[in-house]
């Protein structure tokens, strides 16, 4: 079975990971197996992670082609450390994350991710937990408006939340196009808008349903705790919210977080950097890839190399 879409920034990911025969790499977002196949073709072993049960046929195809160097473990990012222990491998040489919803998931109307295709209002990347329908039919106005603003940057989040509460009294939401229509009307129609009015609301619901930002934070921390010295961490993001988390994580863990001023000094950080940047800042897709794959237009890649310093652990305020 071939991949239904081209993995974004594939050449850059492989260059950053630099997989070699004998290396063990975690592909934390297996999907259709695009990164995994490229890593395996370089001779490395892959422990693939994915919480989406629909990726199984792609995993079976990869396993047939690389029977001794590939395994898939169903888990979200936060289960990375446990999954690596389950794999039985001794040393982790690299980990790659591809954040967000895949075009494969968007194309499946029955998953409920898209406001362009009619389907059940689900949006779960796994087959567990609350759905988008659960959120829009049961959450109060304040929490709904909050996630639309925070996760979707929807400036009229309160108006959208009001419209949803008013409509659900008459009839609960069950379908994607139904919700998209209510959001569109609440925002005054399209009126030449560059993007569909429901784009931000659907993005916010998807992030909330799957706890995407929390999973990303816990996944990065798990990679830090699991990677061997010299192991490489590579992350591809598609949205500023995700990239901000990755940037902040690497800025802190490389010892480059801004310090206090002479008027407001901060305590000296005694922990040694757990990562060194592989390259400064974020890199983006080149013109050739942008022309061939429009999905790459918002993609950014950041990468770092694990030092031999102890892991810093969970972020302050989140607990261990």
From TrEMBL:
EC number: 2.1.1.199
Substrates-to-products reaction catalysed: cytidine(1402) in 16S rRNA + S-adenosyl-L-methionine = N(4)-methylcytidine(1402) in 16S rRNA + S-adenosyl-L-homocysteine + H(+)
Gene Ontology biological-process entries: rRNA base methylation
Keyword tRNA processing: no
Domain of life: Bacteria
GO CC terms, sorted: cytoplasm
Residue positions binding S-adenosyl-L-methionine: 33-35, 50, 77, 98, 105
Function in brief: Specifically methylates the N4 position of cytidine in position 1402 (C1402) of 16S rRNA.
NCBIfam families assigned: 16S rRNA (cytosine(1402)-N(4))-methyltransferase RsmH (TIGR00006)
Similarity comment: family membership: Belongs to the methyltransferase superfamily. RsmH family.
Name recorded for this polypeptide: Ribosomal RNA small subunit methyltransferase H
UniProt organism field: Brevundimonas naejangsanensis
